[in-house]
Every structure is written in C-alpha cells, then in structure tokens.
Amino acid sequence: MHIFEILYHEFIGFWGYDQLWKIIQTQNYEALLTQKGIQAFLRPVLPVLLLIEIIRGLFHQRYSHAQYKISLFTYILNRFISSFLSIAMVAFCIGFFEPYALFKTTLSWYWFIYGYVVWELAHFVYHYFGHKVRLFWCLHSTHHAPEYMNLSVTYAHFFLEAPYADIIRTTICILLGVNPPLLFLIMFIDGTWGSFIHIGENLLKDGRLGFLNRVILTPSHHRVHHARNPLYMDTNFCNLLNIWDKAFGTLQDEKQQVDIEYGISRPMKKGDFLDAYFGEIVALGKDVYAAPGIKNKILYVFMPPGWSHTGDHKTATVVKAEYVKEHKQALRLEGQP
C-alpha cells in the first residue's frame, strides 16, 4: 500500500494545486495577494496547459505518444533521484557566499529590476557553458533531445543539471548583492516563464507574441534555441530579458524561411529514453577513451561539443559559419547580419 500512497501523492503533487486548494477550503482569499498566494495560484497553470495541449493534439490528430515519451520518463526518473538536490545547492551557495557579497539589496522595485538583470546574466553564463563545454553539455543535452516542442519538454532534464545550474546562478546573484528573498521571487517568476516558453504549436501556433517578440524572449525565440538547424545553433541563451543575448551577439529571431528542426545534431535512436538521457555521456566516454594522450583526453571534456583532436571540428561555431558562408546571399536578403 505504501507504494500506491507514494504514487498518489506524486500524481497530486504534479498538478500543484494543493496550496491553492487549502486557500479555497479556508476561504482565506487575501492570501492570494501575497507572494506565496500568487505562487499557489500559478503552480497549476503549466500542468493544465500541458493537458490542454495534449487534448488539442488528439482533437486535431496531431498527437503522438513519442512526442511526450522522453520527457515523461525523464520526469519520473528525476523525481526519484533528485527531488532535493537543487534546493540543497541553492541553500549551500547562499550560506557560503552571502558573507562575500559586494553589497546587499532589499525587496524593492528598483532592486528587483537590478536583481532580474543580474539573474539573467547568471542564467546566460550557466546556459552558455551548458552548450560550450562538453561535460556540461552532457548534463544539458537531455533537455534538447526531444524532437518535438511542447510543454512536457520543460520536465526533460538530466538529474544533475539543476544542481549545476543553481550553483552558478545562485553564486553569481548572491555575490552581486541579490538578497535571498529577492532571489527566490525572481527564481519563481523566471521559472514560470521558462516553463511557458516551451509551449508547442498545438496550443500556440505563432510563438512570437506580437510586439513582445521585440522586447523579450518569447516561445518563438526558445523554439529557435531548441533547433538543430545550423543557423539557429547556440542562440537565445537568456530566459525572459534578451539584454545579454543582444550584448553578446547570440540573439536570433525565427526565420519563416527556415523551418525549425528540433533535437540535437548527434544521430539518436528515435524515441529512445536511455539514449536521450545517457547518450552524450556515452559518446564523451568513447571519445576520451580513444583520444591519444592525457592532454587530448582532458580537452574532450572541456572543449565544445564537436571538437576533435584531429582538427576536423564540427562545433556549432564551425557548422554555423559554414552555413552562413554557403547561404550568405540569401541571408543578406532576409536581413540576417
């Protein structure tokens, strides 16, 4: 019976309505005006949207269980092995680095703006290294493995990615003065938006969101980020504010002439959960084993994916440069720099 109780609580917890239900039961609706109340109200939104997305896919005959298989298995596995790792990393970084903060902020609107800009920088750094360092790509690639875009992809992560991400993001934010209450507020807002931008075409055909596409990073931008098209590789690393992508030249709008191909460039066993979850680790292990000399073995771990000791590099930078060179005239007509 114990296992059924665990499964029941996991199922209920997935929908995230427990706190909202308590507010409704106690009729303490004033709580909805607090930060915790807002969080309780918004938590069920993503699971409900995911359910609607699946229903619409079924209704329009665009649903395939393969679209959700990898994300579902990843979510289930991660629930068993990493429930508290990320929280522990955040708490450790706050406790360790807070005494060394350059200054301290408060929970006010102007420090909120500052904090969000700092958070986006921290997110950019983590995300950039997740694509540019082979070891970190092994942790991040599971999130890019699905060959479809839908809300379930937000749950597809290798179990060690969240701790690695939170070490970098929390450390940068704390050292630059973002105090813990402000950090937790920003993390909640950014996490909510970060989940929403994975919304699929079944629920939102055009992800540009009108004029917002020029102001923030929209679902359209994040669809580009998940693409394996050479033009789209390693772009749009921020989450909500696009300032750091603009600053570092990684902002890329969706091109109507370039159909998005989701997934990673490495050949994969289609719909294979184990390959999506462990495939990049296995590939790295093979490259390290076959590499001549200690130096090359170390370089395979820390150089970008696609780097080769032979000099025949297939990194995203090389592949993209070759594509731009080959399609230079067409890209110039489309206004691509």
UniProtKB/TrEMBL annotation:
It is a multi-pass membrane protein. Keywords: Lipid metabolism, Membrane, Oxidoreductase, Transmembrane, Transmembrane helix. GO terms for molecular function: glyceryl-ether monooxygenase activity; iron ion binding. The chain crosses the membrane at residues 40-59, 80-97, 109-129. One of its GO terms (cellular component) is membrane. GO terms for biological process: lipid biosynthetic process; membrane lipid metabolic process. Residues 113-250 form the Fatty acid hydroxylase domain. The keyword Cytoplasm does not apply. The keyword Cell membrane does not apply. This is Fatty acid hydroxylase. It comes from Spirosoma pollinicola.
